[in-house]
Design a protein that fits this description.
single chain, 186 residues, mainly alpha, 7 helices, 83% helix
């Protein structure tokens, strides 16, 4: 994995313009505050329950594939929200998003570190991972700035499509990462 690929991946993963407006989307579909609070809590359930098992799976199977699957789960979230008219599909979407986070969270760090170790450049991990956090932050900031404007221009459905494409791009970028796993081979 090249560091530029990793940075582009981190940007695309977080350049999701539905971020700042999804609460407004839920309210526009008639959800009350209790339902919206429950949706936000539902996201954390798969993150908490799957964090450890997906980490073990990443060590024994494929970190790259889990990162790609994480992006696909985020795509399924935005696709389900695109068609949602009520609580159920929004809940399904948040569950997909939570699973996607659990699949990719530890895999990203481990895959980056092992790729750098293979290149005998593991001392650069903190610098590159920090740059990745910066690029992710830029993606979030641009999304937060643009989300409201985009809803006005192209509606919630358009913003969901852009968010879907961003998740697709992050998965495509991750599919080009080099699979290196010193835990499995070592």
């Amino acid at each position: 994995m090249k560091s530029k690929e990793f940075l582009a991946y981190r940007f695309c993963k977080e350049a999701v313009p539905i971020y700042p407006v999804y609460l407004l989307l839920f309210a526009s579909k008639g959800l009350d505050l209790g339902q919206i609070s429950l949706l936000l809590a539902l996201w954390s359930v798969p993150v908490v329950l799957l964090e450890l098992p997906t980490g073990v799976l990443a060590d024994h199977w494929s970190r790259k594939h889990l990162i790609v699957l994480g992006g696909l789960c985020r795509m399924l979230c935005f696709a389900s929200w695109f068609f949602a008219e009520g609580f159920v599909l929004f809940a399904v979407g948040f569950l997909f998003w939570g699973v996607g986070e659990a699949l990719s969270s530890g895999s990203e760090e481990a895959l980056l570190y092992d790729n750098l170790k293979l290149a005998k450049n593991e001392h650069a991990f903190e610098k590159i991972y920090g740059k990745g956090a910066f690029y992710a932050g830029v993606g979030v900031a641009l999304s937060c700035f643009a989300g409201g404007f985009l809803v006005e221009l192209i509606t919630f459905k358009g913003v969901l499509l852009i968010s879907f494409v961003s998740a697709l791009l992050s998965s495509l970028l991750a599919s080009h990462f080099k699979e290196v796993n010193f835990f499995k081979t070592g």
